[in-house]
Structure formats: C-alpha cells, structure tokens
TrEMBL record:
<comment type="function">
    <text>Catalyzes the formation of methylglyoxal from dihydroxyacetone phosphate.</text>
</comment>
<feature type="active site" description="Proton donor/acceptor">
    <location>
        <position position="60"/>
    </location>
</feature>
<feature type="binding site">
    <location>
        <begin position="34"/>
        <end position="37"/>
    </location>
    <ligand>
        <name>substrate</name>
    </ligand>
</feature>
<dbReference type="GO" id="GO:0008929">
    <property type="term" value="F:methylglyoxal synthase activity"/>
</dbReference>
<dbReference type="Pfam" id="PF02142">
    <property type="entry name" value="MGS"/>
</dbReference>
<dbReference type="GO" id="GO:0005829">
    <property type="term" value="C:cytosol"/>
</dbReference>
<feature type="binding site">
    <location>
        <position position="87"/>
    </location>
    <ligand>
        <name>substrate</name>
    </ligand>
</feature>
<comment type="similarity">
    <text>Belongs to the methylglyoxal synthase family.</text>
</comment>
<protein>
    <recommendedName>
        <fullName>Methylglyoxal synthase</fullName>
        <ecNumber>4.2.3.3</ecNumber>
    </recommendedName>
</protein>
<dbReference type="InterPro" id="IPR018148">
    <property type="entry name" value="Methylglyoxal_synth_AS"/>
</dbReference>
<dbReference type="InterPro" id="IPR011607">
    <property type="entry name" value="MGS-like_dom"/>
</dbReference>
<feature type="binding site">
    <location>
        <position position="8"/>
    </location>
    <ligand>
        <name>substrate</name>
    </ligand>
</feature>
<feature type="binding site">
    <location>
        <position position="12"/>
    </location>
    <ligand>
        <name>substrate</name>
    </ligand>
</feature>
<feature type="binding site">
    <location>
        <begin position="54"/>
        <end position="55"/>
    </location>
    <ligand>
        <name>substrate</name>
    </ligand>
</feature>
<dbReference type="InterPro" id="IPR036914">
    <property type="entry name" value="MGS-like_dom_sf"/>
</dbReference>
<dbReference type="InterPro" id="IPR004363">
    <property type="entry name" value="Methylgl_synth"/>
</dbReference>
<keyword id="KW-0456">Lyase</keyword>
C-alpha cells in the first residue's frame, strides 16, 4: 500500500510519535511524505520514505497528483486547525481529491489510529480491487 504522511508545523512531533508507535505496521508499505515531515520521521525511525517538497512549496500538490492518478492508498494528514495556513487552497484541493478518488485520509490522531488498525487487520483489500480495475478501464 502507498501511504503518505503530512503534518503541519505544530503537529510534526505528534506525527513522529505516531509513526514510531506503528513503525512495525508501516515498514511493510511504500511511504511518502512532504519534505520536513518525512525527514523528521526518518531521523527517528528506520523507515525509508520518499520525500516530496515541503507542503507550502508544492508537496501537498505532489501527493495530490498521486491521489488524482489513484496511486495513493491512505493519507495521514495531521492538520493544525488552530493556525491559518498560507497554502490552505492546496490543502483543500488535496482533501477534495481524496474525496473524489475515495482515498481514506485521517486529519487527526484518533482517525489515524482507526485507519492503521484497519490496515493492520488487512481490511484494505478493496484498494487492491481499485488498482486492478481502475475507473475508465475495461475489465
């Protein structure tokens, strides 16, 4: 499964701790992240992560491009709802693409925990069907 991690500045430490707690789950998947978040996760874990640009510099859009191509399976995006983000339009566009493509996205730890436990139990088999029969292709 392709999994992306995104965290706003005041949520980066929380993201690192979350990934450390579930490193044993994430190690078996292909991981992506925006720049700084990915760097911090890799510094604290043994995980290999493909890092895109920083979110405000286009990283959210790079992950969004994977979502638009139905190449992302799960996103953990720890947003800071109490801080205005200069790239808010990019964030909204990414979340809209996830809704269009049916990509599960967690925007807080509680939802992240639910999605990781589902992943751990093997309940994402439906994503394999989506990859096998992409919309617009004949089966």
């Amino acid at each position: 499964m392709n999994i992306a991690f995104i965290a706003h500045d005041r949520k980066k430490e929380e993201m690192v701790n979350f990934v450390i707690a579930y490193e044993y789950v994430f190690k078996d998947h292909t991981l992506y992240s925006t720049g700084t978040t990915g760097t911090r996760i890799m510094e604290q874990t043994g995980l290999s992560i493909h890092r895109f640009m920083s979110g405000p510099l286009g990283g959210d859009q790079q992950i969004g491009a994977m979502v638009a191509q139905n190449e992302m399976d799960l996103i953990i995006f720890l947003r800071d709802p109490l801080m205005a983000q200069p790239h808010e339009p990019d964030i909204i566009a990414l979340l809209r693409l996830c809704d269009v493509q049916g990509i599960p996205v967690a925007t807080n730890i509680a939802t992240g925990e639910l999605l990781v436990h589902s992943l751990q139990r093997g309940e994402f088999g439906w994503r394999e069907l989506v990859h096998k029969y992409k919309p617009g292709e004949q089966s």
